[in-house]
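[Automated response] Your request has been received and processed.

Submitted sequence:
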Amino acid sequence: MSANPSQPSVATLDRRGSRGQLGEAEVRVFVDAVVHYFQQVGGDGATVRAAFLADDQLSAPTSDYTGLITVSGAYVGSVYFSAPSLLLRQLLMTMKERASHDSYLDAVGEIANTIAGNARRHFTEKLEISVPVAFAGPAVDIRTAVRARPLVLTVEWRALQAIVVIDVAAA
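Generated structure:
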C-alpha cells in the first residue's frame, strides 16, 4: 500500500499465501477506486481510516443505503458500498443534484458500480460484474458468500463515514 500514514496497510489482513485470497495489490485496487471516486465526484478525496476482517459467520456491516455488485469469472463474490443518508445528501449537494430516497439509491448503486468497474479494468475482462442492486435500510440479508471473513474498509469523506465490503476471492 502507500506510505501515507492515513491509509492503513492491509498486508497483515490479507496476504496472498492461500489460494483464492486477495493480496495487497488487489485490495489496493478497491481502495484506490473509492478514493478516486470521491476526488472526482465530491471534490475531496476520501480517506480509508480502517481495514479489518468482518467477524466470523456474521453479516458484514451496512448503513442506511447500500449498493451491491456481484462478480464472477476469474474472481467470484461481491463488493458493496454502504453509506448513511447524510453522506449521500452531502455528495449529491456537491454534485448539484436533488437529494431524495431515489437519488440516494442511485448514488450507492453508482458508487458500487464504479468501484467494481475499476476492479474490472485491473483484473481484465476475466472479471464479470453485475448491474448494481441498491436498497435502503439495514442489509440483514447480505451474507458472506465467498470468504468466511470479508474485508471491510471504513471510508471517511468530509467527516462522514461509509464502508466498502469486499467479499471476493479467486475462482
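Summary generated for your ticket: The chain is about 30% helix and 30% strand. Residues 1-19 have pLDDT under 50 and may be disordered.
If you did not submit this request, please reply to this message.
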